[in-house]
Design goal:
alpha+beta, single chain, 116 residues, 34% strand, flat, 5-stranded antiparallel β-sheet, 5 strands
Length: 116
């Protein structure tokens, strides 16, 4: 999680992967939040684009944390009743979704010192 600390300390511009790392770090001390990366691969005008966000589940609701050039492909409030509903929201934002991958859960036992 040194990357997350550096991002915070240096206020560096970040892309989607760094946003996922930062989201994992910032939510690491909330034990009741389930976190899982969701990666997308799409093609547009013959070019393949990859994207990743952090899916979250809390109190039976699903949402997402992340960054994107497109506002529809990043942060989603905890308003979705199921993981399926959350994924469908992202899928409809792509013209042609080549594949959708997700990992069910990710756990981090982070016991390092806070950012200084």
């Amino acid at each position: 999680m040194d990357v997350a600390k550096t991002i915070i300390k240096e206020s560096l511009p970040i892309k989607c992967l760094e946003a996922v790392i930062l989201s994992l770090y910032l939510t690491s001390e909330i034990p009741s939040v389930q976190r899982f990366p969701i990666s997308f691969k799409s093609s547009f005008q013959g070019t393949v684009h990859k994207h990743i966000i952090l899916g979250v589940q809390y109190s039976g609701k699903y949402g997402a944390l992340g960054l994107s050039r497109r506002s529809t492909l990043m942060y989603k409030e905890l308003n979705f009743e199921s993981l399926h509903d959350l994924l469908q929201e992202f899928i409809k934002c792509y013209e042609e979704c080549k594949s959708l991958k997700f990992i069910i859960s990710t756990t981090y036992d982070y016991k390092d010192s806070p950012v200084q």
